[in-house]
Specification:
Helix content is 54%, strand content 7%. The protein has 23 helices and 8 strands. Helix 11 (146-155) runs antiparallel to helix 12 (159-175). 31% of the residues are buried.
Length: 527
């Protein structure tokens, strides 16, 4: 019937009208394939596209899309929407490229997780950065790639989103007792707060008010301290929870002492002071620091002890009282600033009991390092001091390379050269102005702790390898200067988190873990 009718149509307009009637008739009878074909023949592409798209006939739909003129932008865009709906990336991409709809094309790449193509398009059209990086950051976070997500949030100009994500990760680590992770994310949180203060950016394109800047700087110091505590406590938690451990007892002992002196008043959430004291009691007996072990058992009297531990602790408490009331002399820490012997625990914190100098610890073994802090007499000389230290020729040459050491040490004292073999040079050289400063403690100790004061002339006499500078990005936090008083003790410093380590420990942990044992940075990776 329809073919005969078409043959007798007098003109094209009447023919198109007839085809439309055939299409409507096909719709009424449920013959959608014929209806779509008739709408295409009549030039009513939108109705044909709707029928094909709703029924998922994508191959005929892409044929229609290809035959459309570029001026039919709405019809082509509708085709692209149907392809997106059914997850056919290649067809949708072809449709959007035909009409040069780059915004819809970018949304397509993001929606279908085609990140490589999205970033490739972003290179030529950076105005879509937020539309790409924000969903990319959320996708990374969902896939547990949090460090990459943090960077993506920054590129999306959403630093506050990154901050909130890291906060959540840090507190989740504490609640789930993943203290190594908690320490790492508190470090990231500290660094992010410092970066915001240094950039003076409130995350919305404006400057940070002075009061808010000071709060964030305070948060930097607080989160940095928490990162250190959680990083250390992870070892104690593992030691008290797991029956067997491969960790060095001496390192665990130093960690327990460090924590005990740093959580005297406020104990961060998740850290158990009971676990620290239990570790001190057990390790103190093992390492023959009986006085400290007895002190730990006395402190345990103030805790609620689990019933399954009470009998064992009572027995330990009785046996420890049969031991000498003294600590093993080799375990007593010596201050490298004033050369005084210190008790294993100090009620004033992790500082020297005599000169109040804070102990600088290796953040792997947690024994304190022979580092003494100094500062310039004139604060205006700090920049010149930094330039001098960073210059390759301004300071004296460093110590011999490994393999060149024949065991002999040369030292000048009182105009006489002294040659020694084998032993470390631990005695102070009184011809060294810095060493003479260390002996001037009568004035210094009466005023509390102050770093050793030097000038640029004294700095020129130092060896470059013996100087360490704790320097943070920008000028928000003042740099700190340290000198290694025993050059034979090789020390490394991570330039990212500014923690110190024994060189051997640092290199081994970097090779084992792929980065700094505290922050994971690869800046100082051994070659």
């Amino acid at each position: 019937m329809w073919p005969e009718a078409k043959q007798i149509c007098p003109n094209d307009e009447n023919l198109k009208d007839l085809i439309r009637r055939q299409a409507r008739w096909a719709e009424e009878t449920g013959d959608w394939q014929e209806a779509a074909d008739m709408w295409v023949q009549s030039g009513d592409y939108m109705r044909a596209i709707t029928i094909m798209g709703e029924r998922g006939w994508l191959d005929p739909l892409i044929d229609v899309c290809r035959q459309l003129n570029k001026n039919e932008m709405q019809a082509i865009k509708t085709c692209g929407q149907y392809f997106r709906k059914h997850g056919i990336h290649q067809y949708a991409k072809e449709a959007y490229l035909k009409i040069n709809d780059l915004k819809s094309l970018m949304q397509l790449h993001v929606e279908m997780l085609k990140w490589d193509e999205a970033f490739q398009l972003l290179e030529s059209h950076p105005e879509y950065a937020e539309e790409v990086y924000l969903p990319y950051a959320e996708w990374l976070a969902l896939n547990d790639r949090f460090d990459e997500a943090q960077e993506a949030f920054k590129k999306a100009n959403k630093p506050l989103f990154a901050l909130r994500m890291i906060e959540q990760l840090a507190y989740n680590g504490v609640l789930e007792r993943r203290f190594k992770d908690a320490g790492y994310y508190f470090w990231k949180l500290a660094y992010e707060n410092l970066r915001i203060v240094q950039a003076n950016d409130d995350g919305e394109g404006g400057a940070i008010p002075l009061e808010e800047s000071q709060k964030k700087l305070h948060k930097f110091h607080e989160y940095y301290r928490r990162a250190e505590l959680y990083h250390a406590y992870a070892n104690i938690h593992k030691y008290t929870e797991i029956p067997f451990t491969s960790q060095d007892p001496t390192n665990l002992f130093h960690i327990a002492r460090y924590l005990m002196m740093n959580v005297r008043t406020e104990v961060p959430m998740g850290i158990s002071k009971l676990s620290i004291v239990l570790a001190l009691a057990k390790l103190g007996k093992q390492l023959e620091t009986y006085k400290l072990a007895r002190h730990a058992h006395d402190k345990l009297q103030g805790f609620v002890i689990p019933k399954n531990m009470m009998d064992a602790l009572d027995l330990q408490s009785v046996t420890i009282r049969a031991k000498p009331f003294q600590d093993k002399e080799e375990m007593l820490p010596i201050c490298y600033r004033c050369s005084s012997t210190n008790p294993l625990l100090n009620n004033n914190g992790d500082v020297c009991a005599n000169c109040h100098a804070p102990f600088v610890r290796s953040f792997h073994s947690f024994d304190h390092l022979p580092l003494v802090e100094f500062r310039m007499q004139d604060p205006r000389d700090d920049e010149d001091a930094l330039k001098m230290i960073e210059s390759p020729n301004m300071l004296q040459a460093g110590r011999k390379k490994e393999g060149d050491d024949d065991g002999w040490n040369t030292q000048s004292a009182g105009g006489t050269q002294v040659l020694t073999f084998g032993a470390m040079q631990t005695d102070l050289n009184m011809d060294d102005p810095f060493s003479r400063q260390l002996m001037n403690l009568d004035i210094q100790s009466s005023k509390g702790y102050t770093p050793v004061l030097i000038n640029l002339t004294m700095l020129k006499q130092f060896k470059k390898e013996d100087i360490f500078v704790v320097k943070w990005p920008g000028n928000v936090v003042k740099p700190k200067f340290f000198r290694n008083m025993i050059p034979d003790v090789a020390i490394s410093m991570c330039e990212e988190c500014n923690h110190f380590f024994h060189e051997e420990d640092f290199e081994f942990e970097c090779l084992k873990k792929g980065g700094c044992p505290f922050c994971g940075s690869t800046k100082n990776m051994p070659s």
